[in-house]
């Protein structure tokens, strides 16, 4: 079996050029005679690679010097807890904007460490739209505002950064980081599990304003304290070396693609192609999300007749279109269109969808 078009929500498709480079370098990385996975993270070669990865990321996102870039572990889920441990002291309040499954989970995990104020929620509307900004009940005493710019399961995405005044904005960008240009200065802390737009799972990228690292948080072991990770250059303990390396290759690939403006344009075109196919299908396919809240990255959709789902999945897989099954919470289908999914993949998907309609009526 050759490579297929991969619409997985995560772990997701990686750029083929990145995988090929990793394959070429697997046995003998950088003239060292060993794999990158088999060497010390304290070695000169690894440190040079790690520094280059950080520099490339800083260039891509124009990360200012007063922000630290951290290469951490634990998945985004661990940081649902670790963020309030670091940014809130016992008794402090934190605002959470709940716009889908993942922000709901982030709020619930934070409740062990902060007084969580759900400042807005679109749960009553089945997460089919973003909570309207003018209805947010922000707590004036909150020590940060957390939101999830892209909800991977519900397929809703903020297309602007919300204005929340001087309170640091914390964003779980697991499923839309690097999907287009971003003004990092609008954020106090950005974090993302790597397994969608960056690299393999097991790596978490964090961009955090350095002044926030001085917050006392609460008594905790050093391994949980972001300031310690920053002081140690993300090498407080052994980092995910292979993940860091692959992330670095992805950053170089992104630069070669023309950077985030170019990739953002491409992502817009990919999403438009699929949404137009869904909306133009006369109700055969349906995406229920309010159009202005629709995600560029994750497109859930249903068939007009759910009894056709199994056939759609079997036939799409046979046609080389992988992982279109929707999340169990929503059923139906979901196509994830991360950076490494080319326009040709979306063209193949919409052609398959049209053909499916012709054959199944
Ligand atoms: N946040 C978002 C937006 C996600 O999509 C996911 C995973 N799909 C998570 C958090 C959880 O990530 P992890 O499994 O790395 O903990």
Question: What's the arrangement of secondary structure elements?
Answer:
Blueprint: E1 5-6, H1 16-25, H2 44-61, E2 67-72, H3 75-87, E3 93-98, H4 101-110, E4 115-121, E5 145-147, E6 150-151, E7 156-157, E8 169-172, E9 189-193, E10 204-209, H5 226-231, H6 241-256, H7 259-279, E11 285-286, E12 298-303, H8 309-318, E13 321-322, E14 333-336, H9 343-360
Parallel strand pairs: 1-13, 3-4, 3-5, 5-8, 8-9
Antiparallel strand pairs: 2-10, 6-7, 9-10, 11-12, 12-14
Helix pairs in contact: 1-6, 2-6, 3-4, 7-9
The structure holds 4'-deoxy-4'-aminopyridoxal-5'-phosphate.
Please give the order of strands in the largest beta sheet.
2-10-9-8-5-3-4
Shape: globular
Largest sheet: 7 strands, mixed
The CATH architecture category of the largest domain equals: 3-Layer(aba) Sandwich
Count of DSSP-assigned helices:
9
Bound molecules: 4'-deoxy-4'-aminopyridoxal-5'-phosphate
